[in-house]
């Protein structure tokens, strides 16, 4: 399976694949193709798997299938397998597979406005004065993010470690709205930590921990608790347990577009210092009556997800191997289309927004 921890997109040579099918059939065996038709893990349905450590599956669920994610016959594999089966079973005459469907090239999207997550929590469900952090499942939340917030007192003169016991799956750590680091969870190290540096501007900063559910495991698990998301126990700051938490539920579901209408949107400047978790918004125009499938390139972006016309097309990550997001034709329309991007974090803070756009292309792109 492709995963955001893995560097390479998985493929299998068409001839090798067909020969494997032929070998099984020659022994009077049965074949189940995994997969025959490539799919897409839209919204937050990607799931995860386990190979000594947790791995989040990519949004694209097409591992070089005979029929691609966008519904096209693979250029060589489809006919190679057809011919292999035909050596052992009678196959009715079949017309030549159709050429790949046309793909839409809708240009490059420049983002004109942004909104800081921490400044726009009012549309979401907020719980106050919570003594111990609560996991997603006990908040009756299946997907998305949960924000855990509290106050640090007298954090003045020295670096202190922040310990997060049983944090699953990925946490963005912020002090007074400024990203301090990212913590990713693995079973090998259930207690994760990050060293925090005091802020010169405030001895009593607000601590925010934005935890993302990156997908529940769909295979063998070392323990049952691996599929619970969020924070289970009290974090420690130095030697002190932290309590008095405010918890904000951020499912980022189909209500998000309406919620975002109440955000305090600000104009994008071309040289921005991105120090927090941000939403971006733009409008792009399609001039044809019936739009085509397309792929949206996320190069130069960090980690997050994208909605188009209110439909969540899935997660993206600068780690790869997936560099493009499949955009099905049915979510597009003639005229104005709205795109909303949430970027929880990125490697570099100073960015040039002229270079940080998103471009529609006609095929999937993968890291080398």
TrEMBL record:
Ranges of residues in domain Beta-galactosidase galactose-binding: 278-337
Origin species: Adineta steineri
Limits of the Beta-galactosidase 1-like first all-beta domain: 133-250
Domain Glycoside hydrolase 35 catalytic: 7-87
Protein's name in the database: Glycoside hydrolase 35 catalytic domain-containing protein
Gene3D superfamilies to which the protein is assigned, alphabetical: Galactose-binding domain-like (2.60.120.260)
MF annotations from Gene Ontology: hydrolase activity, hydrolyzing O-glycosyl compounds
Chain segments annotated as transmembrane: none
GO biological process, one term: carbohydrate metabolic process
InterPro entries in the record: BetaGal1-like_ABD1, BetaGal_gal-bd, Galactose-bd-like_sf, GH, Gly_Hdrlase_35_cat, Glycoside_Hdrlase_35
Keywords recorded for this protein, A-Z: Glycosidase, Hydrolase
Domain of life assignment: Eukaryota
One of the Pfam families matching this protein, by short name: BetaGal_gal-bd
Family indicated by similarity: Belongs to the glycosyl hydrolase 35 family.
């Amino acid at each position: 399976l492709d995963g955001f921890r893995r560097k390479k997109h998985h493929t299998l040579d068409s001839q090798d694949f067909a020969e494997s099918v032929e070998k099984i059939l020659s022994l009077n065996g049965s074949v189940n193709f995994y997969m025959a038709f490539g799919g897409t893990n839209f919204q937050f349905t990607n799931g995860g798997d386990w190979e000594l450590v947790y791995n989040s599956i990519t949004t694209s669920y097409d591992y070089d299938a005979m029929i691609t994610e966008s519904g096209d016959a693979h250029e060589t594999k489809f006919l190679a397998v057809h011919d292999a089966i035909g050596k052992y079973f009678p196959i009715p005459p079949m017309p030549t597979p159709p050429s790949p469907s046309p793909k839409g090239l809708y240009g490059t999207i420049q983002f004109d406005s942004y909104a800081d997550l921490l400044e726009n929590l009012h549309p979401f469900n907020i719980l106050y004065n919570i003594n111990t952090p609560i996991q997603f499942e006990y908040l009756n939340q299946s997907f998305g993010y949960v924000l855990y917030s509290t106050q640090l007192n007298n954090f003045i003169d020295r670096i202190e470690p922040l310990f997060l016991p049983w944090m699953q799956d990925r946490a963005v750590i912020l002090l007074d709205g400024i990203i301090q680091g990212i913590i990713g969870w693995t079973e090998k190290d259930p207690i994760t930590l990050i060293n925090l540096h005091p802020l010169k501007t405030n001895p009593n900063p607000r601590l925010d921990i934005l935890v993302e559910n990156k997908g529940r495991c769909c295979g063998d698990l070392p323990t049952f608790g691996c599929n619970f998301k969020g924070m289970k126990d009290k974090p420690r700051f130095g030697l002190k347990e932290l309590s008095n938490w405010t918890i904000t539920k951020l499912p980022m579901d189909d209500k998000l577009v309406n919620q975002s209408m109440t955000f305090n949107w600000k104009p994008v400047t071309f040289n921005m210092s991105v120090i927090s978790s941000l939403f971006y918004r733009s409008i792009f125009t399609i001039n044809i009556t019936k739009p085509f499938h397309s792929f949206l390139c996320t190069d130069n972006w960090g980690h997050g997800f994208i909605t188009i016309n209110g439909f969540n097309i899935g997660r993206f990550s600068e780690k790869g191997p997936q560099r493009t997001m499949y955009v099905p034709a049915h979510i597009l329309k003639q005229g104005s289309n709205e795109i909303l991007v949430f970027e929880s974090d990125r490697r570099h803070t100073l960015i040039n927004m002229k270079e940080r756009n998103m471009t529609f292309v006609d095929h999937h792109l993968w890291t080398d």
